[in-house]
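Need C-alpha cells for this chain, all 666 residues.
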Amino acid sequence: MKNLAVIAMGQNTSIAFREQLYRLLGNRVNVNNYYIEGNLLPSNIEADLVLFSSQAAYQRSKSYVNKTCPILVARRSINYHEVNKLFEIPVGTDVLLVNDLASSANQTIALLQTLGIDHINYYPYSPQILNYPRLKIAVTPGEKELVPDFVEEVIDIKTRLIDITTLVEILIQLNLLELYADFLSANYVQDIIRLIKNDNQIIYESNKVRAQFETVIDTVHDGIIAIDSSEKISVFNPVAERLLNIKAEHAVGHSVNQITNTNLLYILDGKNKIRESLVMVNQHYLIVNMAYMHPENFELGRIYTFKDVSEIRRLEESVRRKLIQEEKFAKYTLCQVIGQSTVIKQMLAIAEKMALSSSTILIQGESGTGKEIIAQGIHNASPRNSGPFIAVNFAALTENLLESELFGYVEGAFTGATRGGAPGLFEEAHKGTIFLDEIGDAPLAFQVKLLRVLQEQQIRRVGSSKLIPIDVRVIVATNRDLKDLIKKGQFRQDLYYRLNVLPIKAPPLRTRGQDILLLAKAFYKNNTRRSDDEEAEQYFKKIAPCLLEYSWPGNIRELQNVVEYLVNICPDVPPDIDILPDECKVNYKSDFSTKETEEELVKRIYDEINLANDQNYSIGRRSLAERLAIPENQVRNLLQKMQAENRVILQRGRKGLRINPEFKEI
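Here are the C-alpha cells for all 666 residues:
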C-alpha cells in the first residue's frame, strides 16, 4: 500500500485534504495528515509522496521531511459548492476575507475575483495583519475561529480544496493514474453536471418568480409604472393602461419623456423626487406614490403606483359596510377582563361555568361596570362562539321601533317598510347569542311579547301570522333594581323569573381594590400607544392613593374618562393630585395609610405577595410600598412582624418575598 503524507498550516485544512483524498483513493493509499499549528510535527516524516498545502507550509516544515521523499505543493481551488452564499451579499458591500496567512487571504481573494465573484469589496485579514477595517461581515474558507470578535456575520465558504491538476500529479507520483483516471474524470464531470443542474434550478426558480411577479403586477388594482436607470419605462401594467389611456406597447422600452400629459410628465420626472402627489389625468384625479428601486442608490430606477380617487372612495364605503356587518360578533373574551381582585376572580369563575349552559343569564351591575364585555366573554366561551353576537340597548330604541327591530316585519306591515320585509335581530342571532342591555327600560307592552318569545323560542314578524322557530341564547343586563320595579308595577314578575335563571353580578369598581390601578395602567397604555408597564406604573405613582380612595360612581367608564383626561393634560409628566378632577379629590386625605388598620394592611400585603408567588414574578419591599401606596418604612415594619409570625420568608436579591408554605397550608 502506498503512503501519502499531507502537511498543512492548520488543522482544518489538513482534515479537509485527507477527506478529499480518501474520497478519491479510498483504502488503496494510506493518508497521514499533519498540521504545523502547535509544532506537533514528528521528525523525519517518510512517505511515497509528501503533499504540502501551500508554499508557506513547505517552508515551515520541509526540515521535518526525509530528504529522499518526493514532494509536491498543492494548487488549490475554491470550494464552488459553497460560493452561492456570496451572491446573497449586496453589491458594493465591504467584507473581511479571513485566512490563516496573509498570502492565503490574498490568494483566496484573487481566486474569487477570477471566478467573477467581484460584486463585493474584499479586505484581507489574518493574525499577522495589523491594519484592517472593522467590518460587520467576514468571509472565510474554513477558518471561522480566526474571525475577529467585532464581526457580526460570518460566511464560511469552507476550506479551499486540492485542484484537479494537483490530483492528477498525485496519481502520477503514486503510479495510480491509469487505475484512477476514469474515476477522477467521472467525479469532475459529475461535479460539473451538479453545478449545471443547480444553475438550471436557479434559472427555473428565477423564471417562476418572474412569472409570479408579472401576474401580481397585472392583477393588482393599482396602476404601476417602473422606470429604469436609463429613464426608460420597463413596466407598464394593464391598470396603468386604463387610467392613463396609453397602450403598454407604446410605453415599455420608450423614454419617459415621450409621455404627452404635462401634469403626469412633471410627476414622473426623477429630478423632482416627489414621493406622493395628486394629479388629474383624463378627467380623473389620481394619487401617485413613488419609491426607488434601491433605497441607497437612486440612480437604479424608481416605481410609481397610481390609484384612482374614486376607487379609494368605493373601497372606503366597502370597508364601512363590512365593519357594520362585523358588529355582529363578540370582540372580547373573559381572559381580556382586567383584574386580580377576589371579587372579579369569583365573578369570572362563575361566568365560565355559565357559558357552558344555554340558559338565560341576568347580569346585574351599576352603570359602567362592563356588563356587555362580560356578556361577550360568556358568548366567546360558550359552544355558540362561532355564531353571531347581537347587542340591543332598550334605552336607545323607541317603543314604536322595538318590535320591528327585534322581531322583523313583512312587506307592507307599515308605512315605509322595506320591499320584501326584513328579519329582526332575534332571527339574525339564530344559533348565537342576543344581548338585551338595559332590560329594565323595556316597555310593559313589549315585556309580554318578549316573555312569549323566551318561552316558545319562536318569533312572529310584524304584519305576519307565521311563526318562525329560533335557536338563540339570551343574555340580559340591567343597572336597575328589577325587584323594586316589580313593586312599582314597571316590570313583570313572570318575565323577571324567566330572565333570572343564571344571575351574575358585575362588581362595582370601588370594591375591586388594586384593580383600579391595573385598569388605569391599561387605559394609559391604550391612550398613549405605549407598552412599558414600568412607565405606566410611574405615571400613576403620585395619584395612586387618591385613585384608590375615590368611590368611582361611574365605575370603569368614569376611570377610563379620567385617564384619558390626564393623558391629554399631562402627556409626558406624571400628574399631581391637583390635576385630578375635583370630584376625585373631594374625600382624599394626605395621610392615606392611616385609614386602614394594621390587620387590613397585613392582609393586603399577604395578598400581593401571594399573587406574585402564584404568577412567578419577583416582589420586594419597595414594589409593595408602591402597589399599596403606603410608606416604605411602614411596609418594612409590617414585614418584620409577618416574618416573626412565620407568615412570610424574606429572601435577598431577585428572589424577593415569599409566603411561608407551612403558613399557607394553615
